[in-house]
Amino acid sequence: MNRSLQFISVLRSCIAVIALMTFGNALQCFVDPSFLKNRLYTNFHDDHGLTSRIVGIWTLITAVLRFTCAIDIYNKPIFGLTILSSFAVLVHYIAEIFYYRTTDLMPATSIQIFVSGILIVGLCCCYPFLDRSKLIQTIEDIQDTNKTLLAKHRKHKTS
Questions:
Q1: Sign, CA torsion 91/94/95/99
Q2: Residue 133: is its pLDDT beyond 60?
Q3: In angstroms, what CA-CA distances link 1 with 20, 151, 152?
Q4: Are 136 and 4 in contact (CB under 8 A)?
Q5: What angle do CA 131, 17, 53 make, to 5 degrees?
Q6: What is the Cα–Cα distance from 59 to 64, expressed in whole angstroms?
Q7: pTM of the full predicted structure?
Q8: CA–CA distance, 58 with 6 (Å, rounded to integer)
């Protein structure tokens, strides 16, 4: 199998796993309004849970976008929005830690920064391989090679 197809396949799986984790975080924001205060924004006080619901909606939209990208990674607008949303997450957490000081550099925020950074790098590395015409040509080449090998195998068995 072509290395670019393998890379795209692995990246799609990673995006799907990250989207599943993001969906879990979004769900947690709605189930437990104190989730953000206890886990992420330790220096921020929100007694009404409004911030938790807003972050939950934002996280849910990000999860849906990532799932969509994992399903149709060759859709360049969706691909670009996924990079942009990951970059927004990265900038958000860095700003919250170092500028606004609503949270500290702890495992929960470090994981968010690390996952967003890795996803951005993976998506940027994958971008040159997204030409669908090359993919179709590669798949056709693989199918032709398989047909040729099958024909040789049949010919060899009949001989």
A1: negative
A2: no
A3: 27, 20, 20
A4: no
A5: 110
A6: 9
A7: 0.80
A8: 31
